[in-house]
Amino acid sequence: MWRVFAVVSLLICSAASAADLPSEDSAQGWLTKMATALRTKNYDMSFVVLQPQSTVEPYRWRHAIVDGKEMEHLSLLNGPGREMVRIDDKVSVFEPNVPAYSQQSDTINGPLPAILFREPLDLADAYNFVLVGRSRISGRATQQIRVICKDKTRYGFNLWLDQESGLLLKMDMVDQSGKIIEQVQVASLSVTEKPADIFQKIEEEKLPDIVNNSIAALPEHKWQLRWLPQGMNEVRRDTHRLSVTGNVIDYILYSDGLVDISVYIQDDYPGESNKNLYRHGAETYYSFHQGNLEITVVGKIPPQTADRMAQSLAIEAN
Amino acid sequence: MTQQKYEKLSAWVDGEIHHDGLVDDLKNDAELMQKWQGYHLVRDALRKETPDQLNFDIAANVAAALENEPTLLAPKKSTWRDWPVVGNVIPLVRNAGQFAIAASVATAMIIGVQNYNQPKDVETNFESNSGFSGLGVQGGLSPVSLEQSRALPRQSVQEQQRKIIAFLTDHQQQMRRKTTELEHNNPQQVTENETEQAEVSPK
Protein backbone atom coordinates (compact mmCIF):
# COMPACT_ATOMS: atom_id res chain seq x y z
CA MET A 1 0.00 0.00 0.00
CA TRP A 2 2.69 2.46 1.02
CA ARG A 3 4.80 1.48 -1.94
CA VAL A 4 1.94 2.23 -4.31
CA PHE A 5 1.44 5.54 -2.62
CA ALA A 6 5.13 6.37 -2.95
CA VAL A 7 5.16 5.52 -6.65
CA VAL A 8 2.05 7.57 -7.26
CA SER A 9 3.41 10.57 -5.41
CA LEU A 10 6.71 10.27 -7.30
CA LEU A 11 4.81 10.22 -10.57
CA ILE A 12 2.89 13.30 -9.55
CA CYS A 13 6.09 15.07 -8.57
CA SER A 14 7.84 14.28 -11.84
CA ALA A 15 4.78 15.30 -13.83
CA ALA A 16 4.67 18.55 -11.92
CA SER A 17 8.34 19.30 -12.54
CA ALA A 18 8.03 18.42 -16.22
CA ALA A 19 5.15 20.84 -16.56
CA ASP A 20 7.10 23.48 -14.67
CA LEU A 21 7.82 25.95 -17.42
CA PRO A 22 9.86 29.00 -16.46
CA SER A 23 7.42 31.08 -14.52
CA GLU A 24 7.92 34.58 -13.26
CA ASP A 25 9.02 33.43 -9.85
CA SER A 26 11.58 30.81 -10.80
CA ALA A 27 15.29 31.29 -11.41
CA GLN A 28 14.72 30.47 -15.09
CA GLY A 29 11.92 33.02 -15.28
CA TRP A 30 14.16 35.70 -13.82
CA LEU A 31 17.02 34.91 -16.19
CA THR A 32 14.70 35.13 -19.17
CA LYS A 33 13.39 38.43 -17.84
CA MET A 34 16.97 39.68 -17.50
CA ALA A 35 17.97 38.69 -21.04
CA THR A 36 14.88 40.39 -22.46
CA ALA A 37 15.43 43.52 -20.37
CA LEU A 38 19.10 43.77 -21.34
CA ARG A 39 18.16 43.72 -25.04
CA THR A 40 15.01 45.82 -25.10
CA LYS A 41 15.26 48.58 -22.49
CA ASN A 42 16.85 52.00 -22.70
CA TYR A 43 19.34 52.13 -19.87
CA ASP A 44 22.44 53.91 -18.74
CA MET A 45 24.58 52.34 -16.05
CA SER A 46 28.00 52.60 -14.49
CA PHE A 47 29.61 49.48 -13.19
CA VAL A 48 32.91 48.38 -11.77
CA VAL A 49 34.72 45.13 -12.43
CA LEU A 50 36.71 44.15 -9.36
CA GLN A 51 39.24 41.45 -8.95
CA PRO A 52 40.30 41.23 -5.32
CA GLN A 53 43.95 42.26 -4.86
CA SER A 54 44.30 42.95 -8.52
CA THR A 55 42.44 45.33 -10.77
CA VAL A 56 39.51 47.71 -10.62
CA GLU A 57 37.97 48.64 -13.95
CA PRO A 58 35.14 51.15 -14.11
CA TYR A 59 32.83 51.09 -17.12
CA ARG A 60 29.94 53.10 -18.45
CA TRP A 61 27.37 51.18 -20.40
CA ARG A 62 24.47 52.59 -22.37
CA HIS A 63 21.89 50.73 -24.33
CA ALA A 64 18.95 51.93 -26.35
CA ILE A 65 16.52 51.07 -29.06
CA VAL A 66 16.70 53.82 -31.67
CA ASP A 67 14.30 53.59 -34.61
CA GLY A 68 13.99 49.87 -34.11
CA LYS A 69 17.77 49.42 -34.05
CA GLU A 70 19.55 48.12 -31.00
CA MET A 71 22.40 50.42 -30.05
CA GLU A 72 24.93 49.96 -27.31
CA HIS A 73 27.98 51.79 -26.05
CA LEU A 74 30.47 50.40 -23.58
CA SER A 75 33.36 52.50 -22.41
CA LEU A 76 36.28 51.67 -20.15
CA LEU A 77 36.83 54.75 -18.02
CA ASN A 78 40.35 54.22 -16.60
CA GLY A 79 43.65 54.55 -18.38
CA PRO A 80 43.84 54.93 -22.15
CA GLY A 81 40.40 53.34 -22.30
CA ARG A 82 38.53 51.23 -24.78
CA GLU A 83 35.31 52.18 -26.50
CA MET A 84 32.95 49.74 -28.08
CA VAL A 85 29.88 50.71 -30.05
CA ARG A 86 27.34 48.27 -31.34
CA ILE A 87 24.62 48.94 -33.85
CA ASP A 88 22.54 45.79 -34.27
CA ASP A 89 25.10 43.19 -35.31
CA LYS A 90 28.08 45.40 -36.00
CA VAL A 91 30.51 46.07 -33.17
CA SER A 92 33.13 48.78 -33.61
CA VAL A 93 36.13 48.75 -31.31
CA PHE A 94 38.31 51.75 -30.55
CA GLU A 95 41.34 50.99 -28.43
CA PRO A 96 44.88 52.27 -28.06
CA ASN A 97 47.69 50.85 -30.21
CA VAL A 98 45.29 49.19 -32.62
CA PRO A 99 43.57 50.85 -35.58
CA ALA A 100 39.81 51.05 -35.09
CA TYR A 101 37.95 48.11 -36.53
CA SER A 102 34.51 46.59 -36.63
CA GLN A 103 33.37 43.05 -36.39
CA GLN A 104 30.14 41.27 -36.91
CA SER A 105 28.55 40.27 -33.63
CA ASP A 106 25.23 40.78 -31.94
CA THR A 107 26.77 41.38 -28.52
CA ILE A 108 29.68 43.39 -27.24
CA ASN A 109 32.32 41.07 -25.94
CA GLY A 110 32.98 42.97 -22.75
CA PRO A 111 33.36 41.98 -19.14
CA LEU A 112 29.87 40.46 -19.01
CA PRO A 113 29.41 37.02 -20.55
CA ALA A 114 27.53 37.35 -23.83
CA ILE A 115 25.26 34.42 -23.12
CA LEU A 116 23.46 36.43 -20.44
CA PHE A 117 22.10 38.63 -23.24
CA ARG A 118 21.22 35.77 -25.52
CA GLU A 119 19.86 32.56 -24.07
CA PRO A 120 20.85 32.18 -20.42
CA LEU A 121 18.85 28.97 -20.26
CA ASP A 122 21.32 27.34 -22.67
CA LEU A 123 23.60 27.10 -19.65
CA ALA A 124 21.34 24.49 -18.10
CA ASP A 125 23.60 21.75 -19.54
CA ALA A 126 26.45 22.71 -17.28
CA TYR A 127 24.91 24.82 -14.55
CA ASN A 128 22.07 24.70 -12.07
CA PHE A 129 20.06 27.83 -11.33
CA VAL A 130 18.82 28.45 -7.83
CA LEU A 131 16.55 31.25 -6.73
CA VAL A 132 18.04 32.48 -3.48
CA GLY A 133 16.30 35.49 -2.02
CA ARG A 134 15.94 39.20 -2.09
CA SER A 135 18.34 41.90 -1.05
CA ARG A 136 19.23 45.49 -1.70
CA ILE A 137 21.91 46.27 -4.30
CA SER A 138 22.77 49.71 -5.71
CA GLY A 139 19.85 51.12 -3.72
CA ARG A 140 17.31 48.86 -5.41
CA ALA A 141 15.39 45.77 -4.45
CA THR A 142 16.95 42.77 -6.16
CA GLN A 143 16.38 39.10 -6.68
CA GLN A 144 19.43 36.91 -6.14
CA ILE A 145 20.10 33.87 -8.31
CA ARG A 146 22.90 31.41 -7.90
CA VAL A 147 24.41 29.72 -10.93
CA ILE A 148 26.20 26.60 -9.80
CA CYS A 149 28.44 24.46 -11.97
CA LYS A 150 27.09 20.92 -12.04
CA ASP A 151 30.40 19.04 -12.23
CA LYS A 152 32.28 21.54 -10.00
CA THR A 153 35.02 22.04 -12.58
CA ARG A 154 34.31 25.73 -12.96
CA TYR A 155 33.58 28.66 -10.72
CA GLY A 156 30.03 29.52 -9.71
CA PHE A 157 28.17 32.77 -10.11
CA ASN A 158 25.86 34.88 -8.02
CA LEU A 159 23.59 37.24 -9.93
CA TRP A 160 21.48 40.03 -8.48
CA LEU A 161 18.71 41.24 -10.78
CA ASP A 162 16.70 44.40 -10.38
CA GLN A 163 13.28 43.43 -9.11
CA GLU A 164 11.59 46.07 -11.20
CA SER A 165 13.38 45.97 -14.55
CA GLY A 166 15.14 42.61 -14.42
CA LEU A 167 18.50 44.24 -15.29
CA LEU A 168 21.72 42.85 -13.87
CA LEU A 169 22.96 44.86 -10.88
CA LYS A 170 25.67 42.66 -9.46
CA MET A 171 27.54 39.55 -10.45
CA ASP A 172 30.05 37.61 -8.36
CA MET A 173 32.26 34.84 -9.60
CA VAL A 174 33.02 32.59 -6.64
CA ASP A 175 35.30 29.59 -6.21
CA GLN A 176 34.32 26.36 -4.51
CA SER A 177 35.09 27.72 -1.06
CA GLY A 178 32.88 30.73 -1.68
CA LYS A 179 35.74 33.20 -2.12
CA ILE A 180 35.01 35.99 -4.58
CA ILE A 181 37.27 35.91 -7.62
CA GLU A 182 35.67 38.54 -9.76
CA GLN A 183 32.91 40.97 -9.10
CA VAL A 184 30.80 43.19 -11.30
CA GLN A 185 28.96 45.82 -9.33
CA VAL A 186 26.62 48.39 -10.82
CA ALA A 187 26.99 51.75 -9.10
CA SER A 188 24.23 53.67 -10.81
CA LEU A 189 21.41 52.71 -13.10
CA SER A 190 18.76 54.69 -14.88
CA VAL A 191 16.13 53.19 -17.10
CA THR A 192 14.46 55.71 -19.36
CA GLU A 193 11.61 55.81 -21.83
CA LYS A 194 13.66 57.69 -24.41
CA PRO A 195 17.09 56.69 -25.70
CA ALA A 196 20.05 58.71 -24.45
CA ASP A 197 21.20 61.65 -26.59
CA ILE A 198 24.59 60.12 -27.25
CA PHE A 199 23.07 57.62 -29.65
CA GLN A 200 21.82 60.44 -31.88
CA LYS A 201 25.40 61.64 -32.26
CA ILE A 202 26.83 58.38 -33.54
CA GLU A 203 27.44 58.66 -37.23
CA GLU A 204 26.91 55.22 -38.50
CA GLU A 205 28.60 55.78 -41.86
CA LYS A 206 31.82 56.87 -40.19
CA LEU A 207 32.29 53.68 -38.19
CA PRO A 208 35.15 51.50 -39.38
CA ASP A 209 34.50 48.64 -41.77
CA ILE A 210 34.08 45.07 -40.71
CA VAL A 211 37.40 43.30 -40.83
CA ASN A 212 37.68 39.78 -42.03
CA ASN A 213 39.26 37.67 -39.37
CA SER A 214 39.91 34.64 -41.48
CA ILE A 215 43.60 33.83 -41.55
CA ALA A 216 45.51 32.41 -44.47
CA ALA A 217 44.57 28.76 -44.68
CA LEU A 218 47.04 26.62 -42.79
CA PRO A 219 46.69 22.87 -42.54
CA GLU A 220 44.38 22.34 -39.60
CA HIS A 221 46.01 20.73 -36.59
CA LYS A 222 44.73 17.47 -35.16
CA TRP A 223 44.98 18.07 -31.44
CA GLN A 224 42.13 16.87 -29.29
CA LEU A 225 41.38 17.09 -25.59
CA ARG A 226 40.02 13.78 -24.36
CA TRP A 227 38.49 15.40 -21.31
CA LEU A 228 36.41 18.56 -21.18
CA PRO A 229 34.26 20.00 -18.40
CA GLN A 230 30.58 19.25 -18.86
CA GLY A 231 28.87 21.62 -21.30
CA MET A 232 32.20 22.96 -22.65
CA ASN A 233 32.31 23.03 -26.44
CA GLU A 234 34.97 23.72 -28.99
CA VAL A 235 34.33 27.09 -30.58
CA ARG A 236 37.25 27.45 -32.92
CA ARG A 237 40.61 25.96 -33.78
CA ASP A 238 43.43 27.41 -35.81
CA THR A 239 47.14 27.91 -36.01
CA HIS A 240 48.27 31.44 -35.47
CA ARG A 241 51.11 33.65 -34.35
CA LEU A 242 51.20 35.20 -30.88
CA SER A 243 51.28 38.95 -31.33
CA VAL A 244 53.78 39.53 -28.51
CA THR A 245 56.45 36.91 -29.14
CA GLY A 246 55.68 35.97 -32.71
CA ASN A 247 55.68 32.27 -31.91
CA VAL A 248 53.48 30.08 -34.05
CA ILE A 249 51.11 27.95 -31.99
CA ASP A 250 48.24 25.55 -32.48
CA TYR A 251 45.15 26.92 -30.84
CA ILE A 252 41.75 25.72 -29.66
CA LEU A 253 39.11 27.92 -28.04
CA TYR A 254 36.51 26.31 -25.81
CA SER A 255 33.48 27.95 -24.27
CA ASP A 256 30.44 27.02 -22.23
CA GLY A 257 28.91 30.45 -22.68
CA LEU A 258 30.01 31.84 -19.34
CA VAL A 259 33.67 30.93 -19.43
CA ASP A 260 36.14 30.86 -22.31
CA ILE A 261 39.20 28.64 -22.23
CA SER A 262 42.14 28.94 -24.60
CA VAL A 263 44.37 25.95 -25.17
CA TYR A 264 47.72 26.49 -26.87
CA ILE A 265 49.92 23.70 -28.07
CA GLN A 266 53.48 24.28 -29.08
CA ASP A 267 55.49 21.29 -30.18
CA ASP A 268 59.15 21.15 -30.93
CA TYR A 269 59.76 23.11 -27.76
CA PRO A 270 62.93 21.87 -26.09
CA GLY A 271 63.29 22.10 -22.33
CA GLU A 272 62.75 20.06 -19.24
CA SER A 273 59.39 18.88 -17.99
CA ASN A 274 57.71 21.25 -15.62
CA LYS A 275 54.42 22.86 -14.74
CA ASN A 276 53.79 26.54 -14.28
CA LEU A 277 50.82 28.15 -12.70
CA TYR A 278 50.01 31.84 -12.45
CA ARG A 279 46.89 33.69 -11.50
CA HIS A 280 46.19 37.01 -13.10
CA GLY A 281 43.07 38.29 -11.40
CA ALA A 282 40.43 35.70 -12.15
CA GLU A 283 42.46 34.31 -15.03
CA THR A 284 44.39 31.11 -14.56
CA TYR A 285 47.51 30.61 -16.63
CA TYR A 286 48.71 27.06 -16.62
CA SER A 287 51.47 25.60 -18.72
CA PHE A 288 52.41 21.99 -18.79
CA HIS A 289 55.63 20.95 -20.38
CA GLN A 290 56.27 17.40 -21.36
CA GLY A 291 58.94 16.17 -23.69
CA ASN A 292 58.95 18.44 -26.72
CA LEU A 293 55.42 19.58 -26.14
CA GLU A 294 54.21 22.59 -24.27
CA ILE A 295 50.51 22.87 -23.50
CA THR A 296 49.19 26.15 -22.13
CA VAL A 297 45.69 26.64 -20.79
CA VAL A 298 44.34 30.13 -20.10
CA GLY A 299 40.92 30.94 -18.73
CA LYS A 300 38.80 31.72 -15.71
CA ILE A 301 38.84 28.19 -14.37
CA PRO A 302 40.26 26.47 -11.29
CA PRO A 303 43.88 25.28 -11.76
CA GLN A 304 42.80 21.64 -11.26
CA THR A 305 40.52 21.87 -14.27
CA ALA A 306 43.27 23.45 -16.37
CA ASP A 307 45.63 20.66 -15.35
CA ARG A 308 43.13 17.94 -16.17
CA MET A 309 42.46 19.48 -19.56
CA ALA A 310 46.15 19.81 -20.37
CA GLN A 311 46.86 16.22 -19.33
CA SER A 312 44.12 14.90 -21.58
CA LEU A 313 45.68 16.18 -24.79
CA ALA A 314 45.90 13.65 -27.58
CA ILE A 315 46.31 13.66 -31.29
CA GLU A 316 43.28 12.76 -33.32
CA ALA A 317 43.54 9.33 -34.89
CA ASN A 318 42.75 10.25 -38.50
CA MET B 1 16.85 37.13 67.19
CA THR B 2 17.24 34.86 64.21
CA GLN B 3 14.67 36.84 62.23
CA GLN B 4 16.65 39.97 62.96
CA LYS B 5 19.86 38.24 61.90
CA TYR B 6 18.29 37.20 58.60
CA GLU B 7 17.10 40.73 57.92
CA LYS B 8 20.54 42.08 58.64
CA LEU B 9 22.07 39.50 56.34
CA SER B 10 19.60 40.34 53.61
CA ALA B 11 20.44 44.03 53.89
CA TRP B 12 24.14 43.21 53.87
CA VAL B 13 23.80 41.06 50.74
CA ASP B 14 21.96 43.95 49.08
CA GLY B 15 24.84 46.20 50.04
CA GLU B 16 22.64 48.39 52.20
CA ILE B 17 24.57 48.08 55.45
CA HIS B 18 28.20 47.53 56.37
CA HIS B 19 28.63 45.39 59.38
CA ASP B 20 31.99 43.76 59.99
CA GLY B 21 30.77 41.52 62.78
CA LEU B 22 28.34 39.85 60.43
CA VAL B 23 31.14 38.20 58.47
CA ASP B 24 32.40 36.50 61.60
CA ASP B 25 28.88 35.45 62.49
CA LEU B 26 28.46 34.07 59.02
CA LYS B 27 31.63 31.99 59.24
CA ASN B 28 30.54 30.35 62.42
CA ASP B 29 26.88 29.81 61.67
CA ALA B 30 26.06 27.08 59.17
CA GLU B 31 22.42 28.08 59.03
CA LEU B 32 23.33 31.66 58.26
CA MET B 33 25.68 30.46 55.52
CA GLN B 34 22.84 28.53 53.99
CA LYS B 35 20.71 31.65 54.04
CA TRP B 36 23.48 33.74 52.50
CA GLN B 37 23.72 31.29 49.62
CA GLY B 38 19.95 31.29 49.27
CA TYR B 39 19.74 35.07 49.09
CA HIS B 40 22.40 35.23 46.39
CA LEU B 41 20.64 32.56 44.39
CA VAL B 42 17.35 34.46 44.64
CA ARG B 43 19.05 37.67 43.57
CA ASP B 44 20.73 35.96 40.58
CA ALA B 45 17.44 34.38 39.59
CA LEU B 46 15.64 37.75 39.77
CA ARG B 47 18.33 39.34 37.62
CA LYS B 48 18.31 36.30 35.31
CA GLU B 49 22.01 35.78 35.98
CA THR B 50 21.78 32.18 37.07
CA PRO B 51 24.45 29.98 35.45
CA ASP B 52 23.46 27.22 32.97
CA GLN B 53 24.13 24.54 35.55
CA LEU B 54 23.24 25.04 39.14
CA ASN B 55 25.59 23.31 41.54
CA PHE B 56 23.90 24.07 44.77
CA ASP B 57 26.62 23.16 47.10
CA ILE B 58 30.06 23.00 45.51
CA ALA B 59 31.81 23.90 48.73
CA ALA B 60 30.19 21.05 50.64
CA ASN B 61 30.89 18.61 47.80
CA VAL B 62 34.54 19.57 47.62
CA ALA B 63 34.88 19.34 51.37
CA ALA B 64 33.29 15.89 51.35
CA ALA B 65 35.52 14.73 48.48
CA LEU B 66 38.61 15.90 50.32
CA GLU B 67 37.44 14.12 53.42
CA ASN B 68 37.07 10.86 51.55
CA GLU B 69 40.35 11.13 49.66
CA PRO B 70 42.73 8.41 50.85
CA THR B 71 46.14 9.66 51.76
CA LEU B 72 48.84 8.58 49.31
CA LEU B 73 51.82 7.07 50.97
CA ALA B 74 53.33 5.10 48.07
CA PRO B 75 56.75 6.33 46.80
CA LYS B 76 57.01 7.98 43.38
CA LYS B 77 57.68 5.65 40.49
CA SER B 78 61.11 6.15 38.96
CA THR B 79 60.96 7.44 35.38
CA TRP B 80 63.45 7.21 32.51
CA ARG B 81 64.56 10.69 33.44
CA ASP B 82 66.14 9.29 36.57
CA TRP B 83 68.33 6.83 34.69
CA PRO B 84 71.87 8.22 34.73
CA VAL B 85 72.70 8.35 30.96
CA VAL B 86 69.31 9.18 29.54
CA GLY B 87 68.86 11.97 32.01
CA ASN B 88 71.88 13.71 30.52
CA VAL B 89 71.07 12.98 26.89
CA ILE B 90 67.48 14.24 26.90
CA PRO B 91 68.26 17.91 27.69
CA LEU B 92 70.94 17.81 25.00
CA VAL B 93 68.44 16.53 22.45
CA ARG B 94 65.98 19.14 23.56
CA ASN B 95 68.53 21.90 23.01
CA ALA B 96 69.39 20.49 19.62
CA GLY B 97 65.69 20.63 18.81
CA GLN B 98 65.67 24.32 19.56
CA PHE B 99 68.59 24.83 17.22
CA ALA B 100 66.78 22.87 14.53
CA ILE B 101 63.70 25.01 14.94
CA ALA B 102 65.76 28.17 14.75
CA ALA B 103 67.43 26.88 11.60
CA SER B 104 64.14 26.00 9.98
CA VAL B 105 62.77 29.44 10.77
CA ALA B 106 65.79 30.94 9.05
CA THR B 107 65.18 28.78 5.98
CA ALA B 108 61.55 29.73 5.96
CA MET B 109 62.59 33.36 6.11
CA ILE B 110 64.87 32.94 3.12
CA ILE B 111 62.23 31.13 1.12
CA GLY B 112 59.68 33.70 2.20
CA VAL B 113 61.85 36.55 1.05
CA GLN B 114 62.46 34.90 -2.31
CA ASN B 115 58.77 34.27 -2.84
CA TYR B 116 57.98 37.76 -1.76
CA ASN B 117 60.40 39.28 -4.21
CA GLN B 118 59.33 37.37 -7.25
CA PRO B 119 55.86 38.83 -7.78
CA LYS B 120 57.39 42.29 -7.53
CA ASP B 121 59.63 41.48 -10.46
CA VAL B 122 56.68 40.21 -12.39
CA GLU B 123 54.69 43.35 -11.76
CA THR B 124 57.39 45.79 -12.68
CA ASN B 125 57.91 43.86 -15.82
CA PHE B 126 54.27 44.09 -16.74
CA GLU B 127 54.12 47.76 -16.04
CA SER B 128 57.13 48.48 -18.18
CA ASN B 129 55.46 46.77 -21.07
CA SER B 130 53.30 49.71 -22.03
CA GLY B 131 52.28 48.45 -25.42
CA PHE B 132 50.40 45.65 -23.84
CA SER B 133 46.68 46.32 -23.92
CA GLY B 134 45.29 42.96 -22.98
CA LEU B 135 45.77 43.25 -19.26
CA GLY B 136 44.15 45.77 -16.95
CA VAL B 137 45.49 49.22 -16.40
CA GLN B 138 47.16 48.21 -13.18
CA GLY B 139 47.87 44.76 -14.50
CA GLY B 140 50.24 42.43 -12.77
CA LEU B 141 50.69 38.76 -12.17
CA SER B 142 50.58 37.04 -8.85
CA PRO B 143 52.22 33.65 -8.98
CA VAL B 144 50.31 31.02 -7.07
CA SER B 145 53.03 28.49 -6.87
CA LEU B 146 56.35 28.20 -8.52
CA GLU B 147 57.01 24.55 -8.68
CA GLN B 148 60.70 24.82 -9.29
CA SER B 149 62.55 25.59 -6.08
CA ARG B 150 65.77 26.71 -7.72
CA ALA B 151 66.08 30.36 -8.58
CA LEU B 152 65.72 31.02 -12.26
CA PRO B 153 68.35 33.15 -13.92
CA ARG B 154 67.00 36.62 -14.45
CA GLN B 155 67.07 36.28 -18.21
CA SER B 156 64.82 33.27 -18.18
CA VAL B 157 62.43 34.81 -15.66
CA GLN B 158 61.94 37.69 -18.05
CA GLU B 159 61.50 35.31 -20.91
CA GLN B 160 58.91 33.42 -18.91
CA GLN B 161 56.99 36.59 -18.15
CA ARG B 162 57.06 37.67 -21.75
CA LYS B 163 55.63 34.32 -22.66
CA ILE B 164 52.84 34.59 -20.11
CA ILE B 165 51.96 38.07 -21.36
CA ALA B 166 51.90 36.71 -24.87
CA PHE B 167 49.43 33.98 -23.96
CA LEU B 168 47.22 36.18 -21.79
CA THR B 169 47.04 38.87 -24.48
CA ASP B 170 46.23 36.34 -27.11
CA HIS B 171 43.53 34.84 -24.91
CA GLN B 172 41.92 38.27 -24.56
CA GLN B 173 42.10 38.84 -28.30
CA GLN B 174 40.62 35.46 -29.05
CA MET B 175 37.79 36.02 -26.60
CA ARG B 176 36.97 39.36 -28.19
CA ARG B 177 36.88 37.73 -31.58
CA LYS B 178 34.70 34.89 -30.34
CA THR B 179 31.24 36.29 -30.94
CA THR B 180 31.94 36.75 -34.60
CA GLU B 181 32.94 33.16 -34.90
CA LEU B 182 30.01 31.95 -32.85
CA GLU B 183 27.59 33.67 -35.18
CA HIS B 184 29.05 32.24 -38.34
CA ASN B 185 30.45 28.91 -37.41
CA ASN B 186 28.13 27.71 -34.75
CA PRO B 187 25.95 25.29 -36.74
CA GLN B 188 29.01 23.92 -38.47
CA GLN B 189 30.89 23.64 -35.20
CA VAL B 190 28.12 21.70 -33.58
CA THR B 191 28.12 19.09 -36.32
CA GLU B 192 31.90 18.93 -36.14
CA ASN B 193 31.74 18.34 -32.41
CA GLU B 194 29.19 15.62 -32.82
CA THR B 195 31.31 13.76 -35.34
CA GLU B 196 34.34 14.12 -33.11
CA GLN B 197 32.50 12.75 -30.17
CA ALA B 198 31.26 9.89 -32.27
CA GLU B 199 34.83 9.12 -33.24
CA VAL B 200 36.10 9.23 -29.70
CA SER B 201 33.36 7.32 -27.97
CA PRO B 202 33.97 3.80 -29.41
CA LYS B 203 37.52 3.76 -28.02
TrEMBL record, chain A:
<protein>
    <submittedName>
        <fullName>MucB/RseB C-terminal domain-containing protein</fullName>
    </submittedName>
</protein>
<dbReference type="GO" id="GO:0032885">
    <property type="term" value="P:regulation of polysaccharide biosynthetic process"/>
</dbReference>
<keyword id="KW-0732">Signal</keyword>
<dbReference type="Pfam" id="PF17188">
    <property type="entry name" value="MucB_RseB_C"/>
</dbReference>
<dbReference type="GO" id="GO:0045152">
    <property type="term" value="F:antisigma factor binding"/>
</dbReference>
<dbReference type="InterPro" id="IPR033436">
    <property type="entry name" value="MucB/RseB_C"/>
</dbReference>
<dbReference type="InterPro" id="IPR033434">
    <property type="entry name" value="MucB/RseB_N"/>
</dbReference>
<comment type="similarity">
    <text>Belongs to the RseB family.</text>
</comment>
<dbReference type="Pfam" id="PF03888">
    <property type="entry name" value="MucB_RseB"/>
</dbReference>
<dbReference type="InterPro" id="IPR005588">
    <property type="entry name" value="MucB_RseB"/>
</dbReference>
<feature type="signal peptide">
    <location>
        <begin position="1"/>
        <end position="18"/>
    </location>
</feature>
<dbReference type="GO" id="GO:0030288">
    <property type="term" value="C:outer membrane-bounded periplasmic space"/>
</dbReference>
<feature type="domain" description="MucB/RseB N-terminal">
    <location>
        <begin position="26"/>
        <end position="208"/>
    </location>
</feature>
<keyword id="KW-0574">Periplasm</keyword>
<feature type="domain" description="MucB/RseB C-terminal">
    <location>
        <begin position="220"/>
        <end position="313"/>
    </location>
</feature>
<dbReference type="InterPro" id="IPR038484">
    <property type="entry name" value="MucB/RseB_C_sf"/>
</dbReference>
From TrEMBL, chain B:
<dbReference type="GO" id="GO:0005886">
    <property type="term" value="C:plasma membrane"/>
</dbReference>
<keyword id="KW-1133">Transmembrane helix</keyword>
<feature type="domain" description="Anti sigma-E protein RseA C-terminal">
    <location>
        <begin position="139"/>
        <end position="176"/>
    </location>
</feature>
<dbReference type="Pfam" id="PF03873">
    <property type="entry name" value="RseA_C"/>
</dbReference>
<keyword id="KW-0997">Cell inner membrane</keyword>
<dbReference type="GO" id="GO:0016989">
    <property type="term" value="F:sigma factor antagonist activity"/>
</dbReference>
<comment type="similarity">
    <text>Belongs to the RseA family.</text>
</comment>
<keyword id="KW-1003">Cell membrane</keyword>
<dbReference type="InterPro" id="IPR005572">
    <property type="entry name" value="Anti-sigma_E_RseA_N"/>
</dbReference>
<feature type="region of interest" description="Disordered">
    <location>
        <begin position="175"/>
        <end position="203"/>
    </location>
</feature>
<dbReference type="Pfam" id="PF03872">
    <property type="entry name" value="RseA_N"/>
</dbReference>
<keyword id="KW-0812">Transmembrane</keyword>
<comment type="subunit">
    <text>Interacts 1:1 with ECF RNA polymerase sigma-E (RpoE); this inhibits the interaction of sigma-E with the RNA polymerase catalytic core and leads to a decreased expression of sigma-E-regulated genes. Interacts with RseB.</text>
</comment>
<dbReference type="InterPro" id="IPR036147">
    <property type="entry name" value="Anti-sigma_E_RseA_N_sf"/>
</dbReference>
<dbReference type="InterPro" id="IPR005573">
    <property type="entry name" value="Anti-sigma_E_RseA_C"/>
</dbReference>
<comment type="function">
    <text>An anti-sigma factor for extracytoplasmic function (ECF) sigma factor sigma-E (RpoE). ECF sigma factors are held in an inactive form by an anti-sigma factor until released by regulated intramembrane proteolysis (RIP). RIP occurs when an extracytoplasmic signal triggers a concerted proteolytic cascade to transmit information and elicit cellular responses.</text>
</comment>
<dbReference type="InterPro" id="IPR052383">
    <property type="entry name" value="Anti-sigma-E_RseA-like"/>
</dbReference>
<protein>
    <recommendedName>
        <fullName>Anti-sigma-E factor RseA</fullName>
    </recommendedName>
</protein>
<dbReference type="InterPro" id="IPR026279">
    <property type="entry name" value="RseA"/>
</dbReference>
<feature type="domain" description="Anti sigma-E protein RseA N-terminal">
    <location>
        <begin position="6"/>
        <end position="77"/>
    </location>
</feature>
<keyword id="KW-0472">Membrane</keyword>
